[in-house]
């Protein structure tokens, strides 16, 4: 069935290119992903910039698991996201699902490794560079847990007004997690070069629990052979 488009895209920043995705997921989709993953999460890892291997690191204290992109609910979500990324679902990695409890966070990092680093080569060896990241909010915390960009500019500074931000998200472009919403940002500029202003942080959860799904989008098909 053809994926229906219901998401509203709201530009937040041009530096980096970041857009809020309002109503990116239905309640049923949020629940389906959570049901499939709640009991499976384990301590999150990062890619070592020297060895290219996955490792546990104090910069990232969440728990994680993955859902295969061939699973029905994931394909349904990915087909709809193609209307935003303008790329087919075959460019997406498997969906990473994360749980953040009080105090858990992901310190400032980039989703695309440095050009000359082993981690950069590891992340780009299949499908080319990660060009964009989509974050989907499955369950919102009571406070904190924003996604924030330390080196960023709001399109309109007034966009930050009227929202209660945690200290981590103040005075920078940020997205407050709301169940069913999403955020897309581009890790490269329009010429395909790494945009270091896409450096971002998952702010500590202050109260409650946050569940998110991460979708990394590559420049070329990822682990895909045409049938």
UniProtKB/TrEMBL annotation:
Catalytic activity: L-prolyl-[collagen] + 2-oxoglutarate + O2 = trans-4-hydroxy-L-prolyl-[collagen] + succinate + CO2
Organism superkingdom: Eukaryota
SMART domains: P4Hc
InterPro entries assigned: Oxoglu/Fe-dep_dioxygenase_dom, P4HA-like, Pro_4_hyd_alph, Pro_4_hyd_alph_FE2OG_OXY
Compartment list: Endoplasmic reticulum membrane
GO CC list: endoplasmic reticulum membrane
GO molecular function annotations of the record: iron ion binding; L-ascorbic acid binding; procollagen-proline 4-dioxygenase activity
Limits of the Fe2OG dioxygenase domain: 91-219
Membrane topology, as annotated: Single-pass type II membrane protein
Keyword Oxidoreductase among record annotations: yes
Signal peptide: none
Cofactor: L-ascorbate
Keywords: Dioxygenase, Iron, Metal-binding, Oxidoreductase
Protein name: Fe2OG dioxygenase domain-containing protein
Source organism of this protein record: Ostreococcus sp. 'lucimarinus'
């Amino acid at each position: 069935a053809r994926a229906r488009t219901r998401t509203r895209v709201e530009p937040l920043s041009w530096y980096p290119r970041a857009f809020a995705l309002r109503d990116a997921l239905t309640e049923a989709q949020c629940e389906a992903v959570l049901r499939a993953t709640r009991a499976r999460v384990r301590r999150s890892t990062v890619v070592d910039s020297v060895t290219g291997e996955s490792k546990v690191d104090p910069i990232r204290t969440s728990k994680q698991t993955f859902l295969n992109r061939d699973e029905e609910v994931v394909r349904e979500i990915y087909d709809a996201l193609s209307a935003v990324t303008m790329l087919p679902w075959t460019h997406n990695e498997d969906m990473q699902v994360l749980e953040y409890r009080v105090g858990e966070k992901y310190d400032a990092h980039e989703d695309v490794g440095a050009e000359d680093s082993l981690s950069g080569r590891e992340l780009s060896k299949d499908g080319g560079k990660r060009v964009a990241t989509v974050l989907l909010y499955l369950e919102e915390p009571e406070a904190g847990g924003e996604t924030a960009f330390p080196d960023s500019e709001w399109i309109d500074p007034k966009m930050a007004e009227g929202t209660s931000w945690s200290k981590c998200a103040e005075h920078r472009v940020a997205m407050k997690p709301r169940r069913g919403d999403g955020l897309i940002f581009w890790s490269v500029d329009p010429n395909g070069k790494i945009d270091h202003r896409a450096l971002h942080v998952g702010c500590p959860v202050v109260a409650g629990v946050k569940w998110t799904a991460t979708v990394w989008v590559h420049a070329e098909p990822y682990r895909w052979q045409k049938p």
